[in-house]
Design brief:
By secondary structure, the chain is α/β, with parallel strands linked by helices. The chain has a single domain, classed as Metal-dependent hydrolases (TIM Barrel). It is built from 12 helices and 8 strands.
């Protein structure tokens, strides 16, 4: 695929709904705003990849002491805000108005702060409101463990879904204008969310169970439900989520994208790379600067530009515009 064929990519909106580099860099004492050699991404490479809107996920490993979990999350929020304050290439997204003119010549990398796992709430709704005041606009309700909101996929055998507190959190998120993310959530929790929410919700980084049997992946029925709510599924690059053999290439990512297109429709599939939250990306997508190679491969297979524009950013942009205050 020639550079001419990808000229449209330079002018398109590119959105990645899940990237873990912020937490990783804070823990390792690295600078997100400088090019690194041991991560999959950083600010210079996100800009180089043409990304206009990046969800920066903040993850703290489950801990019985929820105060420690909350301190970790708050340290990541402070680190993110410091980066944004000190680097003119970054801008924090809080409202719909912050999503205007993403691709102008003077545009910055817009950042949405997301918390991966509601453990840090510790059963307290006021902490959700505090995180919102600090700029957090997305919450992945659980990681794979059980928390006060719901069961994650590791606890699927219990058939437990949203708790009473989980229902309160979902309702408050809709009131505030926060994106509800069901990646990592148990099947029962997923269907509870689908019954409770009135607007779009997303699976920021989830793949297709029909192709790879990993417990983190969505069934076709779940994918259709996300679409029915106007939401979006972000295909991720975690090799064990792409193929049962555990060793994946760019072709496997394409297979999941094409499957979700067939099942959920082209309006409801996007990118949720999971860079820096995975051990090793698939061959051909070694770091974030390889994203144009994925687009080129899809175009080589005959997918039209309009469909690809929705995949790489248009769909997630629409969902965020519908939910944010």
């Amino acid at each position: 695929m020639t550079e001419k064929h990808l000229q449209w990519y330079q002018e398109a909106v590119v959105v990645d709904a899940h990237n873990d580099t912020l937490s990783r860099m804070k823990e390792a004492g690295m600078d997100f705003c400088q090019r690194q050699t041991v991560t999959h991404s950083d600010l210079p490479r996100l800009v180089e990849a043409g990304i206009n809107l990046q969800v920066l996920a903040m993850f703290a490993a489950p801990n019985a002491n929820k105060s420690i979990t909350l301190q970790k999350i708050l340290s990541y929020v402070e680190y993110a805000l410091r980066c944004i304050d000190n680097d003119s290439r970054l801008a924090l997204v809080k409202t719909k108005d912050d999503l205007v003119d993403l691709t102008t010549e003077s545009a910055k990398l817009r950042v949405i702060l997301g918390v991966e796992g509601g453990d840090c709430l510790g059963g307290e709704l006021w902490i959700l409101r505090l995180l919102f005041r600090l700029g957090v606009r997305l919450l992945t309700l659980t990681w794979s463990n059980r928390n006060a909101l719901a069961d994650g996929v590791w606890e699927a055998r219990s058939q437990g879904g949203l708790t009473t507190f989980g229902h309160e959190v979902v309702r408050e998120m809709e009131n505030l204008g926060m994106m509800i993310d069901v990646s990592h959530l148990s099947p029962a929790g997923f269907w509870d969310v689908a019954r409770v929410v009135t607007g779009p919700f997303i699976a920021s980084h989830s793949n297709a169970r029909a192709i790879c049997s990993h417990e983190r992946n969505l069934t076709d029925e779940q994918a259709r439900s996300v679409a029915d709510h106007g939401g979006v599924i972000g295909v991720n690059f975690c090799q064990p989520h792409l193929t049962d053999s555990g060793s994946a290439t760019i072709d496997d990512v394409v297979r999941h994208i094409e499957h979700f297109w067939n099942v959920a429709g082209e309006e409801h599939v996007g990118l949720g790379t999971d860079y820096d939250g995975i051990d090793a990306p698939p061959a051909g997508l070694e770091d974030v600067t390889c994203l144009p190679q994925l687009v080129a491969e899809l175009q080589r297979r005959g997918h039209r530009v309009g469909r690809l524009e929705k995949l790489i950013g248009g769909n997630f942009l629409r969902a965020f515009e519908a939910v944010l205050p």
